[in-house]
Amino acid sequence: KVNIAWFRRDLRLTDNAALYHALKSSRPVVPIFVFDTNILNELPAADKRITFIYDVLEEMQEQLKALGSSLEVYHGTPEEVFTALLKKYDIGHVFTNHDYEQYAIDRDEAIGILLKQHGAALHTYKDQVIFERNEVVKDDGTPYTVFTPYSRKWKSALTPFYLSSYPAKKYYDNFYQQKAYALPTLKSMGFERVDIDFPGKQVKSALIEHYKDTRDFPGIKGTSHLGIHLRFGTISIRQLARKAQEKSEVFLNELIWRDFYHMILAQFAHVRAGESFRQDYDRIPWRNNEKEFEKWCAGQTGYPIVDAGMRELNTTGFMHNRVRMITASFLTKHLLIDWRWGEAYFAEKLLDYDYAANNGGWQWAAGCGCDAAPYFRVFSPARQTEKFDKELTYIKKWVPELEGFEYPAPMVVHEDARKRALATYGKVLKKG
Ligand code: FAD
């Protein structure tokens, strides 16, 4: 009999909860990854994240090869892959880490049933976050919906135990010994390699130490750009949180926001289903003008800070957090377009796209999320620029034509749009 370690958003061989538990068990461990066609079929051929995953898997394969083992990489639905694996191996247990999205919950339930029918079992572990689901709740056991008290409780619950690494390395001898397989090619899966420099995963201490003073200015590299690594688990959250605890409370706070949104997702089925956290907001009569949406997507709104953000996103797959807030506010308030349109666009483009954080960020900006800005607070692009890109460093980088004549006039007048947003939101929410 063998055991299986199933990698998903935890693409690393060190400090990995499920892998550690798999290797500690007494059977040889076959490591696998599935290019899940249920997910892949929705993506464009030039999706940058597929190249990222592919490169990481190749690195993992090199490491496993050196250990006399092989990562088995499959292309298909998880059901198809496990059906084939059950024929290939006499499987005892499958070890994998929790994933809090609805699709993943349904998938894991189906695989659990399939395995059980064959006398095998699925075991799942917390790995992606420090505290999950109901580990940090109010004294009465109900979930927090406001960040500050959640973060206070989070910090008071934190003991070294939660930040300690899983020493998987000790058990590397237990990997199933076989010749290393070649990965299926990107082309065979319908994808093409994208030529892009992905952010590195080295965590610079100086950056974290200065984070509180630099993080709000998109014109400088003042944030870590670790989002993609946290998303795909190429770094361990425990290791990063230890560093944050040592170096910067403000940085640690951002990691707590990450836990917070994962907790919200796990606790509230209606959020997993794509509804507004505050359901009365689903009565807002969005204008949803497609032409206007296209201008926003393309970075042609005539508001330089909004356009700079969208162009950064379209080109690099990254957008600075401050600018994510400004562009999201512009779409939902100035243009009165349903936040889900923006959410979906970000989901397609962001390298660090993560359902929990993206949904949380969009609902925050639209005003309908937990602990969101009140609806009557409408960001002024001009004020935001004045505060956070005073020298126009960021704007000039992405909107160089600003100084010429080709730049479009503002697609809406700020003050008119603000009044329209207040009237539209107000009509629905004041009654509520
Ligand atoms: P840093 O500032 O260096 O922060 C370190 C890490 O902390 C991030 O990588 C991220 O994992 C976490 N983090 C920081 N801020 C937040 C936050 N507000 N909420 C949750 N986690 C946070 N973050 C994503 O990871 N994926 C998304 O799809 C995503 N979509 C967003 C959409 C909108 C509309 C908004 C307003 C925010 C979104 N964020 C998202 C949160 C935040 O903007 C990004 O995490 C951050 O900009 C990533 O850059 P960084 O890695 O340099 O972050």
UniProtKB/TrEMBL annotation:
Gene3D superfamilies: 1.25.40.80, DNA Cyclobutane Dipyrimidine Photolyase, subunit A, domain 3 (1.10.579.10), HUPs (3.40.50.620). Residues 1-130 form the Photolyase/cryptochrome alpha/beta domain. Its cofactor is (6R)-5,10-methylene-5,6,7,8-tetrahydrofolate; FAD. The keyword Lyase applies. One of its GO terms (biological process) is response to stress. The keyword Lyase applies. Belongs to the DNA photolyase family. This is Deoxyribodipyrimidine photo-lyase. It comes from Filimonas lacunae.
